[in-house]
Amino acid sequence: MDLSTIYEILASALRMATPLLFACLAGLYSERAGVFDIGLEGKMLMAAMTSAAVAYLTGSAWIGLGAGIVASLIFAAIHGLASITFRGNQLISGVALNFVASGATILISQAMFGQGGRTPPLNGAARFHEMTLPFADALRPVPVLGPLYADVLSGNAILVYIALLCVPLSWWVLYRTRFGLRLRAVGENPESVDTAGVSVVRLRYGALMITGILCGFAGAYMSTALQAGFGREMTAGRGYIALAALIFAKWRPWYALWATLLFGLLQALALRPDVIQGALHLAIPGPALDAMPYILTVIVLAGFVGKAIPPRAGGQPYVKER
Amino acid sequence: MTLMKSFLGAAAGMALMAGAAAADPAIIYDLGGKFDKSFNEAAFHGADRWAKETGGKFKELEMQSEAQREQALRRLAESGANPIAMTGFAFGDVLNTVAPDYPKTKFVIVDAVVDQPNVRSVVFQEEQGSYLVGMLAAMASKTGTVGFVGGMDIPLIRKFGCGYVQGVKAAKPDAKVVQNFVGTTPSAWNDPVKASELTKAEISQGADVIYAAAGQSGLGVLQTAADEKVKSIGVDSNQNHLHPGSVLTSMVKRVDNAIYDAFKEGDAMKTGTDVMGLSNDGVAFAMDDNNKDLITPAMKATVDAVAEKIKSGEIKVHDYMTDNTCPIE
């Protein structure tokens, strides 16, 4: 195993981690506001289908991204309506939306394009292409950091950088703004927020809208950057892995970055059995590595590594006292 | 009361006769879905061709979940459809229990063998077609390393991989084959993102021709191969047109012929096991305008000669499913 192999694995890890990171931050906002969202998967799927379809029709990946975000926002709004306004069970609403998304994406794309629930292949400006960061070639000779910058960080679609920028941005929003303070409070103790004269309902809807936007990015990244079109069930459970990452990250933005990068790295390693064999002289089956995110999450939940304390008011619809 | 009984009996008899008179054939597509651009879609094309030629009609059903199999099969059988075709090995066990209950109905199953008097089982010698595309891959490769991306890790897909490896080694004994599977669950058929990453990983290991036998995930393989400017090989249907200039060829499995033939024979269809290989045009490698510049006449001549030898039995391609091992990796 040489250095270039390591850089390739790291680059693969970054690509695999990006949709997880978007989805994980999406879940972070809604859960921090006290609304559990199992429906990340469904929102990503809707966004993936819509952005691929619209990007194909308009020939612009950016318009596709916008449409994907709108589709995801609609699902977030339905979730909000069911679980905030009508105080329904948040888990059931999320699961239901996942089922709806699974069927609706195939139905709509079949009706539009008649290709068995796929969207036609995208090319040219209808897709987000890999971009080279400035000075990538100039910095390449610098030991270690040079190739890390030029081969791992550079050469990704712009959505990858947006995802990475979302991490400090989320930290700043959650911990340094009034909105963030209220958002966290509404997930811990909505009564106190209400007493202070701030609308719990409005805050929770706001959080869900951010969730919708971020899921839109995640879906669009998969269908218009990683792939050139939508295929049925193409999210393949990434929304659930993102939820696992969220617990692993203990509902914190920076930890979310590390957790999703770790999960991405595990997925990337599962693709390279030859490397593991070479490094450890031991054959680890790929499925074992694929299961690691869930195993790690269970370990964290069991309290072996620190404590994962969810927002206290999570999952409970807020009922104003009368 | 007796009058009523005989009346009802007559009505039932009439209904049965009506059913027998309108004995339309039927087809059930497996979970991959009717329009999967490969396996099930080929079956649909066969049925469609029959309908266009004869002006007949056929019923069709698409599976949505595992639990529906038996119910769907019984419903079609009771509706009087004859013969009933189904695609996919997963129908094997179900058909084995259902077929004896409808002795007058004929069934066709593709990709599995069901030993019942009213069932025709159609199986393909995918290892032969994969052998040929393996030879083409080895000859087209500049690096001496080629790749294989399978969908779900099941013996049927290993059979594709095993035939492919044998072909590669036959053309270039020192060539290296990198093999990967997308996953171990049915979602492996629908994960083009992971298939793409696998393709990138194989390219970084030097592979410059990659054979995808992964259902819809395979589309991710072909896409990434086109993006990274290497060659790929499609599967089941002719996928050469998806990325002209990048798809070297496709290992075509003539599921359409199997369905067409069965429908044409109708309820007089003969039963038993049909093995479709190179000798009866069951499998082939696809040549058309999209890949004519990629395969030189010399390559085609070499592979055609080997195909003849396989047909005559001079070259034996090992079938992974006979003993669940592959002689060479």
From TrEMBL, chain A:
Keywords: Cell membrane, Membrane, Transmembrane, Transmembrane helix
Compartment list: Cell membrane
GO molecular function terms attached to this record: transmembrane transporter activity
Topology within the bilayer: Multi-pass membrane protein
GO cellular component assignments: plasma membrane
Record field: transmembrane: 6-28, 63-84, 91-113, 153-174, 205-224, 230-248, 255-271, 291-310
Pfam families named in the record: BPD_transp_2
Database matches in InterPro entries: ABC_transp_permease
Taxonomy, superkingdom: Bacteria
Name the UniProt record assigns to this protein: Sugar ABC transporter permease
Organism: Paenirhodobacter enshiensis
From TrEMBL, chain B:
UniProt key word RNA-binding: no
CDD domains: PBP1_PrnA-like
Keyword Protein transport annotated: no
Major location category of this protein: membrane
Highest taxon of source: Bacteria
Signal peptide annotation: 1-22
Pfam families xrefs: Bmp
Residue ranges of domain ABC transporter substrate-binding protein PnrA-like in the record: 35-318
A GO CC term attached to the entry: plasma membrane
InterPro entries in the record: BMP_lipoprotein, Peripla_BP_I, PnrA-like
Keywords, in A-Z order: Cell membrane, Lipoprotein, Membrane, Signal
Protein family: Belongs to the BMP lipoprotein family.
Stored PANTHER family: ABC TRANSPORTER GUANOSINE-BINDING PROTEIN NUPN, TRANSCRIPTIONAL ACTIVATOR PROTEIN MED
The name this protein goes by in its record: Membrane protein
Native species: Paenirhodobacter enshiensis
